[in-house]
Amino acid sequence: MPELTVRNFKQSLDFYTNLLGFRVRYARSEPSFAYLDCDGAQLMIEEMHNAGWETATLETPFGRGINITIEMADVSACYKRMLAAGWPLFRPICDKCYKSSENEESVMREFLLQDPDGYLLRPSQYLSTRVAGEEHPVK
């Protein structure tokens, strides 16, 4: 599971819990840290500090070159919370197909946004599996 370094722990904790829908499994201070869970998707956030594990100077947006998929039970509810909060989206909600085997595709509902530090997140919900290239689900 990823552990994300954040600049403002309170702001990030609010974003992940109140907007994305994570719950705190446990937290500690000095440095501020939280282990978070959303429908089995887990991540950790820790406020930037002098003894941190940064391998280079962190400049926003953090996490350039990666996106973090967060599979959840109701991505549409999360999307509605983001819209209500006026949170900027990188890509609006849509259904996408990804090849999952030689003959099958997984149909996922997802959207993209950046967290307060610029990490690119992809909240996602599995919808169905279908025969590759077909319009209707098979499972």
Protein model, in words:
- The chain has helices at residues 9-19, 75-85; strands at residues 3-6, 23-28, 33-38, 41-47, 67-71, 89-99, 104-114, 120-131.
- A four-stranded mixed β-sheet has the order 1-4-3-2, with helices on one face.
- The mean pLDDT is 90.
- The protein is of the alpha/beta class.
- The chain has two helices and eight strands; from the N terminus they run E-H-E-E-E-E-H-E-E-E.
- The protein is elongated.
- It starts with a strand and ends in an 8-residue tail after the last strand.
- A hairpin with a 2-residue loop joins strand 3 and strand 4.
- The chain has a single domain, classed as 2,3-Dihydroxybiphenyl 1,2-Dioxygenase, domain 1.
- The chain is 16% helix and 45% strand.
Q: What CATH architecture do you see? A: Roll
CATH homologous superfamily, by name?
Answer: 2,3-Dihydroxybiphenyl 1,2-Dioxygenase, domain 1
Report the span from N to C terminus: 28 Å
**Topology-level CATH name:** 2,3-Dihydroxybiphenyl 1,2-Dioxygenase, domain 1
Give a quick rundown of the structure.
This protein is an alpha/beta fold and 139 residues long. It has two helices and eight strands. A hairpin with a 4-residue loop joins strand 6 (89-99) and strand 7 (104-114).
Features:
single chain; 139 residues; alpha/beta; 2,3-Dihydroxybiphenyl 1,2-Dioxygenase, domain 1; four-stranded mixed beta sheet
Topology:
Layout: E1 3-6, H1 9-19, E2 23-28, E3 33-38, E4 41-47, E5 67-71, H2 75-85, E6 89-99, E7 104-114, E8 120-131
Parallel strand pairs: 1-4, 5-8
Antiparallel strand pairs: 2-3, 3-4, 6-7, 7-8
